[in-house]
């Protein structure tokens, strides 16, 4: 009985609460909706929008993952930058920069 209730509670949080909070955070964070440009360099990645500028050094990236249509650049175990692959002119070049400067992608 108790284990089943815990199981249901876990999936309630995972499937309903997490997406709800993520959508709410996105709506509240106006800067996330601004167009952002990305410049790659030997030192790292510069992100720039009308809200400001951020410089991400290669050494600041803890790990990276690549899915079908996005790259996730982790700066901690649960915080990451999202780079949609559709914005990249050359995905293989970006992947090579990540491998050379951060290491192989994590599964």
Could you list some keywords that capture this structure?
single chain, 107 residues, 3-stranded antiparallel beta sheet
Write the layout of secondary structure elements.
Blueprint: H1 2-28, E1 37-40, E2 44-49, E3 52-57, E4 63-66, E5 70-74, E6 80-84, H2 91-101
Antiparallel strand pairs: 1-2, 2-3, 4-5, 5-6
Your description of this structure?
It is a single chain. The protein is of the alpha+beta class. The chain contains 2 helices and 6 strands, in the order αββββββα. The strands form 2 sheets. The protein has a 3-stranded antiparallel sheet with strand order 1-2-3, with no helix packed on it. The protein has a 3-stranded antiparallel sheet with strand order 4-5-6, with no helix packed on it. The model has no long low-confidence stretch (mean pLDDT 84).
SS element count, helices: 2
Largest sheet data? 3 strands, antiparallel
Q: How do the SSEs run, as a string of H and E?
A: HEEEEEEH
Number of strands: 6
Strand content: 25-35%
The radius of gyration computed from the alpha-carbon positions, rounded to a whole number of angstroms, is 17 Å
Shape: globular
Structure classification: alpha+beta
Task: Summarize the model shown.
Helix content is 36%, strand content 28%.
